[in-house]
Q: What sequence folds into this?
């Protein structure tokens, strides 16, 4: 099942928001040796640079769209990224789809659309190593007409946008995770790092 109001923009669209996705990931604390699961990876705008950052640790790119995963497999092959593993599965049962616990679980641009965030976070926690981190990259709760890309309003509808505090609340209620870092991710996003 797809999360509410999620679609996969193309690479050009993403590059207007984040011309250097690897730098965004480093600012959110990703480092060499971190085994990572990206939840709802799409065609890999973050998964590919994540694999370069975390190598030799694996990156598990999880999505329900087999077409996007096939595209990501082709891109990883073309760029000779052999630590990236695509995983077809519903992210709401994340531990069932991973061969091992991970150091970091990342969800970008879709947490606002999770229908049962507490249950979702509980699954994420089950997929994390004992000292693992959960990273949420999300749209600021600003009116959609103020978040433009290429001259047009972008991102989820205004009524679906949630503040950092609204993001932290279900994560902290569902687990012993606590937000330890809040990162501004220009132009329109924030990142929360939970440990």
A:
């Amino acid at each position: 099942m797809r999360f509410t109001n999620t679609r996969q923009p193309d690479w050009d669209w993403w590059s207007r928001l984040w011309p250097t996705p690897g730098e965004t990931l480093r600012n959110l604390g990703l480092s060499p040796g971190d085994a990572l699961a990206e939840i709802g990876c799409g065609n890999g705008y973050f998964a590919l640079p994540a694999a370069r950052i975390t190598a030799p640790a694996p990156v598990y790119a999880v999505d329900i769209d087999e077409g996007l995963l096939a595209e990501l497999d082709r891109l990883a092959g073309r760029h000779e990224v052999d630590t990236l593993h695509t995983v077809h599965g519903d992210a709401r049962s994340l531990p069932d789809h991973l061969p091992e616990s991970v150091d970091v679980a990342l969800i970008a641009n879709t947490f606002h659309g999770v229908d049962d965030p507490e249950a979702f976070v509980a699954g994420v926690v089950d997929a994390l190593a004992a000292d693992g981190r959960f990273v949420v990259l999300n749209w600021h709760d600003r009116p959609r007409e103020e978040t433009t890309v290429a001259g047009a309003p972008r991102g989820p509808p205004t009524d679906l946008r949630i503040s950092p505090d609204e993001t932290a609340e279900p994560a902290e209620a569902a687990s012993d995770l606590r937000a330890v870092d809040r990162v501004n991710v220009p132009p329109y996003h924030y990142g929360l790092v939970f440990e």
Q: What stands out?
A: The chain has six helices and nine strands. Residues 48 and 76 are 7 Å apart (CA to CA). The mean pLDDT is 91.
